[in-house]
Amino acid sequence: MQEAATKLQAEKVQMPSIEHDPALDATQTEQNLRSVERLRVLWEERRFLFKSMVGGGLLGLLLAFSIPKQYQATTELMPPDSQSTNGMALMAALSARTGGALGAVAGDVLGIKGSGALFVGILHSRTVEDRLIQRFELKKVYSVRLDEDARKKLVNNTTVSEDRKSGIVSITVADHDPRRAAGLAQAYVEELDHLVAELSTSSAHRERVFLEERLQAVKQDLDQASRDFSQFASKTGSIDIKEQGRAMLEAAATLQGQLIAAEAELKGLQEIYTPNNVRVRSVRARISELKSQLEKLGGRAGGESIGTGESASNGDSSYPSIRKLPILGVTYADLYRRTKIQEVVYESLTQQYELAKVQEVKETPSVRVLDAAQVPERKSFPPRVLITMLCGLAAFAAAMGWVILREQWRAVSSDSSGKLLTKEILDSVNTRMPWSPPNGSHLQAATHRVWKSVVRRGTSDKEAE
After folding, report:
1. Bridge partners of 160?
2. Given a cut of 50, is residue 90 above it in pLDDT?
3. Is residue 339 in a domain?
4. Could you report the per-residue pLDDT of 285-326, keeping only the tens digit for each?
5. Kind plus residue range of the DSSP H or E element containing 172
6. In contact, 365 and 119? CB cutoff 8 Å
7. Does 211 map to a domain?
């Protein structure tokens, strides 16, 4: 027991003794007294502080109601399809035509990122903004004269963002008119769709444009070939050379057979009857008619100019003679072949053109609306309750600072050089104020006269009331 007591006493001797600093205690005590004194002063001025807070709150409420209301309308777009990398090539035309906002996105779109960043770049482009300014007459709405100022206000009122995880593109537009806010949000989507379709530079688009130009040229050639063929057919009566030749040969053979039979019948009748007999004359007349028809079908050897397009025999035939068919057949076949070739080419190009249009639609990023913009029912700005509370708290804090500073000013000795300098400065400034008598300055004298007139008018108004 004695050894333990001795050991404990030795440890007490080794422990450092904690000494209290009188200066530190005095400083801490003085700070506590100052804090208490300030609290006492604030408590005594509690009515002033309360009035200041209420006045600040009323001022904030007046300010909140003086700020125009703003409404927000939001449109959300589905992530665009990225089925073909060729569809992303439209970024080159977009960056060249719509300005630097798209050029900054070109590398991302042609590289790793999807076409969501492309949509954001297009929506921020000058082309879209100018179309919206013209469509909604935003220069009148924003009360500006220049397009650049209207663009700045539109950009400040518009927020376009893309969700990195889902890829959904959101378009939020703020405006004082809720219907115009919804209309602008929807117009952004429409202009985006139009601009993507207009500036697409995919392979299918280039093919479609080429086929469209070729179709126009081929259509002109086909119309010209059809006109040439129809004019040739109408002049020569050549409807179908092959069928016409077959039919004319059959008709000529039939007529030749009838002519031979009629001549045989005539020889038999001449042996029985006189030349003036009725039957003999009838057969002769029929033979003459058959020969005339054969001449019309075959054409006379020296009586017609072949290839001039005239009638075959007597100048009144509507169809070419057998003698002219071989010569007309060459021209007819050439015109017919040209027309058929142009028809086949036109049909083939038409099929390819329709396929290219379908492929172009597939390769162009589609704009699909997830949530369409609706007319907002509640305002988004200003937050009147928050503004009122902040103004009240700011007035309360300013009043507290004023009370504390005033108390500290009173505590300063009147003989202090700093206080004397401050009073001198305030007096000098006060002499230049409008309510002070003229001090020799023309500007101060003019402002003093204005001040006196305002004060007199206010006094007279009060007396009149």
Report:
1. 171
2. no
3. yes
4. 888 887 777 677 655 544 444 444 444 344 445 555 555 556
5. strand 169-175
6. yes
7. no
